[in-house]
From TrEMBL:
<dbReference type="GO" id="GO:0016020">
    <property type="term" value="C:membrane"/>
</dbReference>
<feature type="transmembrane region" description="Helical">
    <location>
        <begin position="157"/>
        <end position="180"/>
    </location>
</feature>
<keyword id="KW-0472">Membrane</keyword>
<feature type="transmembrane region" description="Helical">
    <location>
        <begin position="38"/>
        <end position="62"/>
    </location>
</feature>
<feature type="transmembrane region" description="Helical">
    <location>
        <begin position="115"/>
        <end position="137"/>
    </location>
</feature>
<feature type="transmembrane region" description="Helical">
    <location>
        <begin position="6"/>
        <end position="26"/>
    </location>
</feature>
<protein>
    <recommendedName>
        <fullName>Riboflavin transporter</fullName>
    </recommendedName>
</protein>
<feature type="transmembrane region" description="Helical">
    <location>
        <begin position="74"/>
        <end position="95"/>
    </location>
</feature>
<dbReference type="Pfam" id="PF07155">
    <property type="entry name" value="ECF-ribofla_trS"/>
</dbReference>
<dbReference type="InterPro" id="IPR009825">
    <property type="entry name" value="ECF_substrate-spec-like"/>
</dbReference>
<keyword id="KW-0812">Transmembrane</keyword>
<keyword id="KW-1133">Transmembrane helix</keyword>
Length: 191
């Protein structure tokens, strides 16, 4: 795959993660703050499966960070989003491509197993990281009671996002995989 194709797909996944996060979310207000239920993380997982962890994680992180920067409610979370979504991509790429070597097999059950495991690992890391970073940030800025309330709601929302994003990303990727393989695009990743 040429650099131009990788750049194009990176931009496409960044735009898709932005659009899915921004326009297909359910905001949950927490006082003057908010969290949301969304499928942006599913796009990060799919990007990491297609492009590899570093590039896929970067694409998803870029799109969702831009979404944060353009929303007054989320603007202060942009650095956290950049870090957390990059971590999702790196873990998904590591598990799927380095450990599972999904690019080296035609066995659909093996591919499914590693895609599912990689999505679960990447999104589980986000369930731990995202609310924890938010908690310590709010503890410093708003104090313990606000941080504790926000942590519980963010943990619940992040858990729901992880479950739905795992299901969506695995089924979408498994649907795309035969097409990617046929077009020799299954070897894109820089895992």
């Amino acid at each position: 795959m040429h650099k131009t194709q990788k750049l194009t797909l990176t931009a496409l996944f960044a735009a898709l993660s932005y659009a899915v996060f921004t326009f297909l979310q359910i905001k949950i207000p927490i006082g003057a703050d908010a969290t949301s239920i969304h499928l942006g993380n599913a796009v990060v997982v799919i990007a990491a499966l297609v492009l590899g962890g570093p590039l896929g994680g970067f694409a998803g992180a870029l799109g969702m960070t831009i979404g944060d920067l353009l929303d007054p409610v989320y603007i202060t979370y942009a650095p956290k989003t950049l870090i957390c979504k990059m971590v999702i991509g790196l873990i998904v790429g590591l598990v799927a491509h380095k450990l599972g070597k999904i690019q080296d097999t035609n066995d659909k059950s093996k591919i499914f197993k590693w895609v599912l495991l990689s999505a679960v690992c990447g999104l589980f890391a986000n369930v731990i990281l995202d609310p924890s970073i938010g908690y310590f940030y709010k503890l410093l800025v708003l104090g313990k009671p606000a941080a504790e309330l926000s942590f519980k709601i963010n943990l619940m929302a992040t858990g729901i996002n992880a479950i739905t994003s795992t299901i969506v990303s695995v089924f979408v990727y498994m649907g795309l995989y035969p097409i990617l393989r046929k077009q020799n695009m299954d070897t894109l990743r820089l895992a």
